[in-house]
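In the design runs reported in the main text, the only information available to the sequence generator was the tokenized backbone. The following block is the verbatim input for one such run; it is reproduced so that readers can re-run the procedure and compare outputs position by position.
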């Protein structure tokens, strides 16, 4: 089946965004800390964005897509500020790249018309280039346990998906595969997992960057994203491995607690860290965060239970964090080798 709806990619602050998904908003896709977990119109399989709002945690002040700054040119008022900027660059960075890939991949939602046919072909337009794709909703073994996962249809959960894009000469490249346990709706982004290589299509993403992400929006009181990444997260952070998680929970009396954690091996950056283990938690509106950090670099940084101003990235008296729960803020385990590798049951070439 071939659907000929080409989807125009528009520009959002210099970055391409799908015109058919313009209702998401450019800010939701591209700017750090602004949630892109917005409604997805109509029948859908993939969410068009997963960013959770962690805007309280500052992003780094180096634009993610500009020329890389030299490490010796970066000046921070303190080691705490350096950690704050590095953690922000990493945590906002993985959200940004995940959304860039998903926004493009969600173009297939517009072509879903025949649920009994597991094969889908179509096209969309990126930066004035028409990109052909092939999608397969047949069940496949995503976790390597020897059992095929998925219903075989895009309208029946769990939905398995393998997605290839074609070069101008017809050569396919693996782009995304996943298992969607709760499909995206106009109300939320559902739940599931995807393996994704957004730079295969997106011109502003390092083509070697890969992510394996899981998410759940089925409980409005606890929304979370967890991801393993490999490759450059932004122009000034090249991470050889990363494990990241964001939790947004609504507690008693409508207090919104936000917890961000990352364990990252850094191959190259202007922060002079080789390893960064970070856990931070804030209550919305408090303007402070409770932080645990273990950073290896020049110099090393090790702090536990530090209360930090989120505006200045500097320590403040600990009683200002008295309302923040310090439990369950352990560092994430480091990413194991192969966490972002394509499943073995995702072949180089589609079978149709």
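Verbatim output:
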């Amino acid at each position: 089946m071939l659907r000929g709806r080409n989807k125009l990619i528009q520009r959002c602050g210099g970055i391409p965004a799908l015109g058919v998904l313009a209702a998401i908003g450019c800010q939701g896709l591209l700017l750090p800390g602004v949630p892109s977990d917005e409604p997805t119109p109509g029948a859908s399989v993939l969410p068009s964005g997963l960013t959770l709002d962690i805007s309280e945690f500052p992003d780094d002040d180096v634009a993610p897509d500009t020329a890389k700054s030299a490490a010796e040119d970066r000046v921070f008022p303190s080691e705490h500020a350096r950690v704050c900027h590095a953690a922000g660059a990493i945590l906002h960075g993985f959200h940004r790249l995940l959304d860039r890939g998903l926004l493009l991949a969600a173009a297939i939602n517009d072509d879903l018309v025949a649920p009994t046919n597991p094969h889908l072909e179509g096209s969309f337009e990126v930066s004035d280039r028409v990109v052909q794709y092939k999608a397969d909703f047949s069940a496949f073994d995503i976790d390597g346990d020897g059992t095929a996962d998925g219903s075989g249809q895009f309208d029946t959960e769990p939905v398995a998906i393998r997605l290839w894009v074609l070069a101008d000469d017809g050569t396919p490249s693996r782009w995304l595969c996943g298992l969607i346990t709760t499909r995206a709706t106009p109300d939320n982004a559902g739940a599931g997992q995807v393996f994704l290589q957004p730079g295969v299509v997106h011109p502003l993403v390092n083509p070697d960057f890969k992510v394996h992400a899981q998410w759940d929006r089925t409980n409005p009181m606890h929304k979370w994203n967890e991801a393993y990444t490999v490759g450059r997260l932004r122009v000034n952070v090249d991470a050889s491995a990363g494990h990241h998680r964001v939790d947004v929970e609504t507690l008693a009396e409508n207090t919104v607690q936000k917890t961000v954690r990352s364990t990252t091996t850094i191959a190259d950056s202007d922060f002079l860290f080789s390893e960064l283990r970070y856990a931070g938690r804030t209550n919305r509106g408090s303007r402070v965060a409770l932080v645990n950090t273990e950073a290896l670099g020049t110099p090393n940084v090790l702090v536990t239970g530090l209360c930090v101003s989120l505006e200045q990235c500097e320590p403040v008296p600990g009683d200002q964090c008295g309302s923040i729960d310090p439990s369950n803020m352990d560092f994430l385990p480091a990413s194991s080798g192969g966490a972002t590798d394509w499943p073995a049951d995702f072949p180089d070439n589609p079978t149709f």
